[in-house]
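Lecture notes, unit on binding sites. The following record was shown on slide 14. It pairs a sequence with calcium ion.
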Amino acid sequence: GAVSAQTVGSSAPEVIGHRGAAGVAPENTVAAFREAVRSGAGFFEIDVQLSADGVPFLFHDSTPARTTNVAEVFPGREDDPITSFTWDELQQLEVGSAYAERYRGERIPHLDDAARAATPRTGVFIEIKSPQDSPGVEAVVAESLASVPEWQRLVARGKVEVIGFDAESNRRFAALAPQIPLQQLAGTVPDAAALEAVAEYADGFSTNYRSLDADGVRRIHDAGLEAAVYTVNSVEAYDQVAALGVDRVTGDFPRELVRHAKGL
Ligand code: G3P
Ligand code: CA
């Protein structure tokens, strides 16, 4: 039909694996990054925070309760901020078995583990997650991209972008690393004036696809920003946002979206 025809060919939105490929492997683990790479996605997305001793680690939630075995290793600390743990403590946590028993033993990755898992085809979207809990995280990420060879190579190929919900944090990052593509995240698309302000420091705008309509995509594009959406977990939703003219689609099942985007 007319809708699926729009999803085939060079204009099909690029696929981004969410938290790696959170639908098929434990989120924010090297196992999930490898799955995203195998899927042929253009990028995989990660969430970065800073440990109590300043090490950048990959983790979505603000506490360890949902995805780790914290109750066994550090009883009583289930609801402590994840950023109150040192890197050495984080490495004692196990983040695979809460997802599925066969992933038991997966550890919390270091930021640089994402660069090592990425390839020239499948790069990395680095989300600066809850930056108010990780003071200085923007500088740590910028310094890593500038000095770690695996990151330098990806940056040179245009395969690293930074994303975040916090506009002040995004502005700080843009000032530190103006050459790295940056996307503002928000649950809804604001008016044209607000998007013009975003375009002063960012290259893209990413929003929840459920709240997006054709006028929202037009406002994003009119501000000179790329349009991205999260979190799309069906081919029907992919077709829906493709028909709106969205440029990038983030989802938990990148293999299915890539196959669909290729018309397979
Ligand atoms: O790609 C953006 C998306 O990752 C934002 O939501 O909660 O999964 O970090 P969240
Ligand atoms: Ca995220």
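Take-home: The pocket of SN-glycerol-3-phosphate (ligand 1) is lined by residues 18, 45, 47, 60, 127, 185, 206, 230, 250 (CB under 6 Å).
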